[in-house]
Design brief:
heterodimer, A: 109 residues, 11 strands, B: 115 residues, mainly beta, seven-stranded mixed beta sheet, globular
Chain lengths: 109, 115
């Protein structure tokens, strides 16, 4: 079956760094997406990885290892506004996104 | 208006009612999606339309009926719903269907409560 695993909840301190892990098992692979969703709002796109390695975008970076079926989202210099759920999704061979349940990130001052 | 809009934002309906959810995208995209989001569960893809034709229907009960009159509008018609259908219904669009790399743009969702 197809499956995405990510932690349910994480807590971090303002100004610190946090890494949110995601492991995936999908039928085929066409890339890994990360989305951010604030409470009561729409998910918004953060990153897309299809090749192994690290992609950096400002304070956010995303890493992919296809051989390990593993990705992480790295958030640096955490701000209170980063408190949100972070959704990991793998695109399978049918171009469908298979979603994780999301990681709720709580930022404390 | 920009992006993806959805109406209504909140809906309370009885099990015997009929209602419709509306989605409109102003991005010139060719693909549109309906998702169901329940608390602490992964997003569930319900329907996909590409260039106004349905391309995916993921075993969704017939009490949910989609309609895509043109590439900018998507509806979800609801009838005889069950309490377990209470959830956030999200509409999304992307440049194309069946192409890797195109991110999906989501609307704010309709919070549906079935009583």
């Amino acid at each position: 079956g197809q499956n995405i695993d990510q932690p349910t909840e994480m807590t971090a301190t303002e100004g610190a760094i946090v890494q949110i892990n995601c492991t995936y098992q999908t039928s085929g692979f066409n890339g890994l997406f990360w989305y951010q969703q604030h409470a009561g709002e729409a998910p918004t796109f953060l990153s897309y990885n299809v090749l192994d390695g690290l992609e950096e975008k400002g304070r956010f970076s995303s890493f992919l290892s296809r051989s390990k079926g593993y990705s992480y989202l790295l958030l640096k210099e955490l701000q209170m506004k980063d408190s949100a759920s972070y959704l990991c999704a793998s695109m399978d061979s049918n171009y469908q996104l298979i979603w994780g349940a999301g990681t709720k990130l709580i930022i404390k001052p | 208006e920009t992006g993806v809009t959805q109406t209504p934002r909140h809906l309370v309906m009885g099990m015997t009612n009929k209602k419709s959810l509306k989605c409109e995208q102003h991005l010139g995209h060719n693909a549109m999606y309906w998702y169901k989001q329940s608390a602490k569960k992964p997003l569930e893809l319900m329907f996909v339309y590409s260039l106004e034709e349905r391309v995916e229907n993921n075993s969704v009960p017939s009490r949910f009926s989609p309609e895509c009159p043109n590439s900018s509008h998507l509806f979800l018609h609801l009838h005889t719903l069950q309490p377990e259908d209470s959830a956030l219904y999200l509409c999304a669009s992307s440049q194309d269907w069946a192409s890797p790399g195109y991110e999906q743009y989501f609307g704010p969702g309709t919070r549906l409560t079935v009583t």
